[in-house]
Q: What sequence folds into this?
């Protein structure tokens, strides 16, 4: 029995694909009881408990990275699976996201003060005409959790907003989100604007959002497509490496 916390073990039963069961149980197996409790309280969206447990764990000598990996991200992984499989919906995800934020409030200052080299710099925004930001914000949270410095330029972001932010922060990755079929073409317009400014080789561009597909991303000339927040982290890591290789060759 890999998971000792009763509530978390119950939540884990919602993970049905064998591959995901293996992956998630390996991540949780052997973690401290307080980490399993933290993961559980995050899944059920109990932000006051996550806040309390985070402080208690830090006081007991657990590291910020342990809290993030063994507690918060394990909880978020199950939230992501449940959301994708329609077992929970946007309100529950938002409540879990609020609980994650309560934990991150104690962890972020430690991680940023540790001097650990950031995984990279990412600009994230929702494209022009589009006000949906829940998915973008989830991606930002996961990216920050994975050590990226993320500059959030918000919703209804024009091509110039993306370009100005990428230049100002010397970002390696630009991430665009769109939830409306009518605003998806603004991804292509933004990529074209980077080309027009002669900046296309300076950044790698990833796109995502419910109606966006790999085919659409290819058509628009994006460098990567991400299906969810975990994927956003994987793609951002790949793109940072790719850009470093391109620049060194
Ligand atoms: C919540 C919501 C709203 C809220 C937005 C609140 C907010 N702060 O975001 C409000 C009420 C404001 C709203 C408004 C509208 N909405 Co709305 N909305 C939704 C709803 C219910 C959920 C979207 C959501 O948050 N999903 C949850 C998140 C977590 O998923 P996600 O965004 O896809 O993000 C994940 C991935 O896609 C990926 N991802 C996202 N971005 C990125 C970026 C990168 C770089 C990467 C790698 C990955 C990635 O990771 C995320 C996490 O896993 C959807 C229906 C649905 N079920 O999708 C309709 C929906 C998107 N809305 C729709 C419409 C039509 C509208 C309105 C036009 C309605 C109106 N007549 O006013 C307006 C448009 C306003 C505007 N200009 O943007 C339609 C779009 C239809 C279409 N084909 O274009 C939908 C599909 C509803 C429907 N079935 O008709 N909406």
A:
């Amino acid at each position: 029995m890999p998971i000792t916390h009763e509530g978390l073990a119950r939540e884990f039963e919602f993970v049905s694909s064998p591959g995901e069961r293996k992956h998630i149980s390996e991540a949780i197996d052997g973690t401290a009881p307080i980490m399993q409790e933290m993961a559980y309280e995050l899944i059920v969206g109990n932000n006051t408990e996550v806040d309390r447990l985070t402080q208690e764990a830090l006081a007991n000598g657990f590291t910020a990275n342990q809290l993030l990996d063994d507690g918060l991200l394990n909880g978020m992984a199950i939230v992501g699976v449940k959301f994708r499989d329609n077992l929970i919906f946007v309100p529950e995800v938002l409540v879990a996201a609020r609980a994650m934020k309560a934990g991150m409030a104690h962890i972020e200052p430690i991680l940023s003060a540790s001097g650990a080299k950031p995984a990279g710099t990412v600009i994230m925004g929702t494209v022009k005409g589009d006000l949906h930001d829940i998915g973008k914000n989830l991606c930002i949270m996961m990216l920050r959790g994975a050590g990226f410095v993320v500059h959030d330029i918000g919703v209804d972001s024009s091509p110039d907003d993306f370009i100005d932010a990428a230049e100002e922060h010397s970002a390696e990755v630009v991430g665009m989100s769109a939830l409306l079929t009518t605003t998806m073409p603004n991804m292509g317009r933004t990529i074209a604007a980077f080309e027009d400014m002669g900046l296309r080789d300076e950044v790698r561009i990833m796109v995502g959002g419910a109606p966006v597909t790999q085919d659409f991303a290819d058509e628009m000339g994006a460098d990567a497509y991400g299906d969810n927040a975990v994927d956003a982290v994987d793609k951002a890591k790949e793109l940072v490496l790719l850009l470093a290789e391109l620049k060194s060759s």
In short: The mean pLDDT is 93. The longest strand covers residues 148-157. DSSP finds eleven helices and five strands in the chain.
